[in-house]
């Protein structure tokens, strides 16, 4: 019989990450970190690798939430997703104009969606242990389709691209404009399930112990 795992805390405001965890058998509490992502990115400098930025932001979010008294005894997970495209680190678009310009540049090409993952184990057994990665499992190559100008304008007008890293989704409206992926799809949505399992194992936490046997 699996031991009772530490309660899971998602240090993210992302509705997609929460929905993904719930669909995967978890019922996390959500505590949003409120960290100043722009300040962290500025401190890393313009030449920082997108994977380094994503990991540093994931760390900042997870550790900020793990510092709250409310997370005593819990396992905290923080994430950050960035699209690496033609040498640029692209988060959410600044505005509709930026989203349109990005799609004009992205269509017919490919990019790498990297998601930094950072876990902090505040349980008694975990003693503040941490596990983090933005490696191979947390990098997915995205091959974009070729939406027409009109389709791009229609997509941006929905507002969806403004709310997501890289100005696209694979499971939402934007999926029509993503031809294929190479790598983990959940990583693109914002949290890689196989990587979460791996990082939990590094902390001695059993991923399946969160599942309700009654289903
Ligand atoms: N549903 C969906 N969401 C996506 C996809 N790609 C990126 N996102 C979302 O884009 C957002 C990336 O921004 P982040 O800064 O990592 O996270 P956030 O939403 O700002 O929330 P915090 O973790 O609180 O910063 C996340 O909410 C991701 O879930 C996708 O293909 N599908």
From TrEMBL:
The keyword Cytoplasm applies. This is Nucleoside triphosphate pyrophosphatase. The lineage of its organism: Bacteria, Bacillati, Actinomycetota, Actinomycetes, Catenulisporales. It comes from Catenulispora yoronensis. The active site is at residue 80. InterPro entries: ITPase-like_fam, Maf-like. Its EC number is 3.6.1.9. It is found in: Cytoplasm. Its cofactor is a divalent metal cation.
């Amino acid at each position: 019989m699996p031991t009772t795992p530490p309660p899971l805390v998602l240090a993210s405001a992302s509705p997609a990450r929460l929905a993904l965890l719930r669909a995967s058998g978890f019922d996390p509490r959500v505590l949003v970190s409120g960290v100043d992502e722009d300040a962290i990115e500025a401190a890393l400098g313009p030449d920082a690798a997108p994977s380094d930025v994503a990991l540093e932001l994931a760390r900042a979010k997870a550790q900020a939430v793990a510092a709250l008294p409310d997370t005593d005894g819990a396992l905290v997970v923080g994430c950050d997703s960035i699209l690496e495209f033609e040498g640029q680190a692209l988060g959410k678009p600044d505005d509709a104009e930026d989203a349109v310009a990005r799609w004009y540049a992205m269509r017919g090409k490919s990019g790498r969606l990297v998601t930094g993952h950072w876990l902090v184990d505040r349980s008694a057994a975990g003693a503040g242990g941490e596990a983090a990665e933005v490696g191979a499992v947390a990098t997915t190559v995205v091959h974009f389709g070729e939406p027409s100008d009109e389709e791009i304008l229609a997509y941006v007008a929905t507002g969806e691209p403004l709310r997501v890293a890289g100005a696209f989704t694979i499971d939402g409206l934007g999926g029509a404009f993503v031809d294929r992926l190479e790598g983990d799809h959940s990583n693109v949505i914002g949290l890689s399930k196989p990587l979460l399992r791996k990082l939990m194992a590094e902390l001695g936490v059993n991923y399946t112990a969160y599942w309700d046997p009654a289903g």
